[in-house]
Write a structure and sequence with these properties.
This protein is of the alpha/beta class and 274 residues long. The chain is built from 12 helices and 6 strands. The chain has helices at 18-26, 49-62, 74-85, 107-118, 125-135, 138-145, 154-161, 166-170, 191-199, 217-220, 222-239, 265-272; strands at 4-7, 31-32, 67-72, 90-96, 177-182, 205-210.
């Protein structure tokens, strides 16, 4: 069975994937969720992009050398770069909540803000707790907090991830790519150009937008995200010739077409217009 490697977002840890790990286990799919440098059990280790890629490389090696790689936010960007550097390891990629170029001009402002917050007496712990309570439900908040928060890592993350040329990275491999974004995610502004970059190699690249979900789409809509994850796993196995695989499903869980699937009726109508 094709294994799955799950990559968490910035400041959190592997524990954010608890519900997806349970879903995969129930389906008999082996899965691991490593902590990236500077996060979870590896807090105190400085985050670097090369170190993050090495973490993914080692995790895939540990599960047999090839996997479906799934990443959210920071994990999505790391997954995209890992696929570019180690295409032989990636049977498919699910890149969630990472459809904005990390080299955005806004990054400089974010970096200044992150470095200032890191110098606060509590390193921004109170602000982080406020945002967590406001953005996710209590169960998701528990999952986010279970591995601890990496409050001093954001500056390094912004500097290192800013080195990724995300479109060029997507053009350097041809394994299947699924871009997944919440409907109200502020990081989905360039999803169409990233989709085009992934498709430029002939890769089976698709887009799913989950209704009413925000940036933390796997926590905002865990059932919908897990269903998309299972569909991506079946598609990756099909691409490997392991099983006859379904096309990507729409928001009702049924196959609709061979184009990118967008779970917003308004956007689907626009995509289908002559």
């Amino acid at each position: 069975m094709l294994p799955v490697v799950l990559l968490h977002g910035s400041r959190t840890s592997r524990t954010m994937w608890r519900r997806q790990l349970a879903t995969l286990a129930a389906a008999g799919i082996p899965a691991v969720a490593p902590d990236l440098p500077g996060h979870g059990a590896r807090r105190g280790t400085r985050f670097t992009l090369d170190g993050a890629i090495a973490t993914v490389r080692d995790a895939v090696d540990d599960v047999g050398g090839r996997a479906l790689v799934v990443g959210l936010s920071l994990g999505g960007y790391v997954g995209i770069e890992h696929r570019a550097r180690h295409p032989e390891q990636v049977a498919g990629l699910v890149a969630a909540s990472c459809s904005t170029d990390p080299a955005s001009p806004l990054r400089a402002g974010w970096l200044v803000l992150a470095r200032r917050i890191e110098r606060w007496g509590d390193s921004g712990a109170h602000l982080n707790d406020t945002f967590v309570r406001a953005l996710v439900d209590p169960e998701s908040a528990v999952d986010l907090a279970a591995g601890g928060f990496a409050l001093d890592v954001m500056g390094d993350v912004l500097e290192e991830v800013g080195r990724i040329d995300v479109r060029e990275a997507l053009r350097r491999a041809d394994s299947p790519v699924l871009l997944v974004n919440g409907q109200w995610d502020h990081f989905r502004g360039q999803e169409r150009s990233l989709l085009a970059a992934a498709r430029s190699t002939g890769a089976d690249a698709r887009l799913v937008v989950v209704p009413r979900a925000k940036h933390l789409v796997s926590l905002d809509a865990p059932v919908a995200f897990s269903r998309v994850l299972l569909e991506a796993h079946a598609a990756a196995r099909s691409a490997l010739g392991e099983v006859p695989g379904p096309d990507t499903a729409d928001e009702g869980g049924r196959v609709r077409d061979h184009d990118d699937v967008v779970a917003q009726p308004r956007e689907r109508r626009r995509a289908q217009a002559p």
